[in-house]
């Protein structure tokens, strides 16, 4: 059973031994090697691996229950061959009408699920990592056609549907605005997946919005496209 994200611990820490008073007149114990008799410690998982573990766990849950979904965001880019450089969280795309059923599945598995002020996603926590369950990408409801175009790929040994490269780059580029235009995060993804993306389709879908147009200009000057 999946552990609640608030309770799960990825790193085992040694406990503190009981303290006892020494008997009167006892000779002080000789100094010992501070490393002696210490229980072995597991190496801590780095943030990228922790995010991957959360993606695998949630993806397996959704797949087992037969939900229509696709992995999105930076973990999807990694699954398509991009860098192992997860940004902040795990993103999954679902249809709006499936949100309640997906939330119920995650709660039944013991995950913390809550509804944020934004009305286009629900949030969960798995292994201490934030998971966004998104049903609106770039101000458009996620449709069955997009999810059916998803490619089943191995995500660190767990197979699951992943947004197609063209849909993934559209979702990242079309979301740029005056208040959100982090080209630095999207640039490595565009460079890694450039040969798999229908850039003309991405341009058409983005229309004449200025921030996506600026990103395309940057990609052209850098010879990415």
UniProtKB/TrEMBL annotation:
Cleavable signal peptide: none
Gene3D superfamilies, per database record: 3.30.460.40
Membrane-spanning residues: none
Superkingdom: Bacteria
InterPro entries, alphabetized: NT_sf (IPR043519), NTP_transf_5 (IPR039498)
Region named Disordered: 1-42
Any Pfam family: NTP_transf_5
The protein's name in its UniProt record: Nucleotidyltransferase
The organism of origin for this protein: Streptomyces qaidamensis
